[in-house]
Amino acid sequence: MATSKAIVLVGSRWHDPWVGGEILKRLLQDVGLASLRTDQGSILTPERLAQTPLVVFYCDGRWIPDDPESRRLTPEQEANLVRYVTAGGGLLGVHGAAVFREEYAQYPQMLGGRFLRHDKQGEFTVKIQNPNHPITRGVSDYAVFDEPYEVEWYPGSELLLAGEWGGQRRPLGWAKSHCQGRVCYLANGHDKRSLEHPAFQQLFRNAARWCAKVG
Fold first, then answer.
1. What DSSP character marks residue 45?
2. What is the rounded distance in angstroms from the CA atom of residue 43 to the CA atom of residue 33?
């Protein structure tokens, strides 16, 4: 496992996945995880997944929003990922990782929620909900300029981050176990500004350690 690499799966029409993916790769390196960045779901084979400590999704579910045939993952690749996490693997989703639509049978439930919509970009405060969780440890409430994501948050996850706009509290990050594996989702990360925010970067590093069960 010493030579294994985390997988950073990127791809989106609305974000810069290569720049964002490079930032996430550097953050993984900070916690001692070498990684491979790719936009090809074909990497999610049982053989490759058996050798990876962590899968990071910085992508969304379709290449073309209105074309169900442009799935990011084939049904087989989705099933491989679910088996990997079920057996003890780690999955860390960032931003568009919740934009997986109804044609995905298992992924949204495993992730713990799905994207609904977002308001215009602006500044809002991310509030820590449990400062004692390993993912939020050392991080305080912070203001960030980003897309305020509205997501449908499923029961069974521990809410770690939330924001408030429109008179409602909105989930912005959570963690959960999925059988033997660990899953975390962080809603921030639309562009370089939010990905390079010190608080987000600390959350991501903490989440990578926790999901991959290292450190």
1. -
2. 18
The CATH number of the domain covering residues in 6-115+173-212: 3.40.50.880
Cα–Cα distance, 24 to 30 (Å, whole number)? 10
d(CA 130, CA 137) in angstroms, rounded, equals 9
With contact defined as beta carbons under 8 Å apart, do 63 and 70 qualify? yes
The three-point CA angle 161-167-172 to 5° equals: 15
Boundaries of every domain in the chain: 6-115+173-212
Using DSSP's 3-state secondary structure scheme, residue 17 falls into helix
- pLDDT tens digits for range 86-123: 999 999 999 989 998 888 989 999 999 998 878 888 89
CB 170 within 8 A of CB 162: yes
